[in-house]
Task: structure prediction
Amino acid sequence: MMLNIGILILYHNVKQNLTHILKLKMILKEAITEFIISQRVKGSSNYTIINQTYDLKLFSNYMDNDIDIEKITVSDLNGYYLYLVGKNLSSTSVQSYIRVVRTFFNWCIAQNYITQRLTERFRLPKAKQNVIDILTEAEIQKLLSSFNLSKKIGFRNYLICLLMLDCGLRLSEIVSLRAENIYISESHMIVDGKGNKQRFVPFGSTTKQTLAKYLESCGSERGSLFYSVRNLPISRMTVTLIFRRLKDKIGIHRLRPHLLRHTFATMYLENGGNIFSLQAILGHTSLVMVKRYLHLSQSKVLRDFHKFSPMDNLK
Result:
């Protein structure tokens, strides 16, 4: 495996040098291959690379795999945007596809494969800001009480949901959790987030007790925290199937992993957590997304103000 990666890196470097020296024509499909190799060398996650490969394949199929990338224009990019809109994708999905294409062309510019600064003239369309949905307290109770904790799989699935609700973990972060990164006595864990960035994430006493019990039942085994019935580390598909079955079982049809993350973030602020701590826990690089949770939690502040009004409570 290491030999194959070494060969890819060598090919990538030689191809770059020849292209720069001889000014060879660079066709789209070859440029995409070079870009994906560079992402692997940079250390992007497999999930990111899979998504980028799929998104750029869609773009190259729309264009022409053998087109000279120097001949691609802003009009072509605008046409691709309209093509995506015509596929009845959500505005968020369209934005995601376009973002990958912009990243690719920025890379092409940096490599001197193209001279046109297309991305400066092709703006990322704004996605529609949907209202953030969260679970009610009654729905949380319904969800957590639906597991058979006497069964190993039931206990595992309960803990997965508990970590999402108490720590705001993403699906990918649940899958990549490792037992040796759980520090029970310190009430925190090390999480592998987006872009291979690690961060410390705290957990409450309920989760602490559940984690301790789960780790004790696993014995001294180390490695992935969660395993499948076949004793293999769980995959994204495993967690996705868990939530599909839960939807039908408890009748909360909007249930999905990210809904639990939204619920955590909103309840954290409602319970007095500050926005900067929330940013660190969630692993966001900016406050833009975190502020959306702040607006949502403020609705409860306004609704409950009469309970805390200094004048209304004056004796």
Remarks:
- The longest helix spans residues 2-22.
- Residues 137-306 form a domain with the hpI Integrase; Chain A fold (CATH 1.10.443.10).
- Confidence is low (pLDDT under 50) at residues 18-23.
- The longest strand covers residues 188-192.
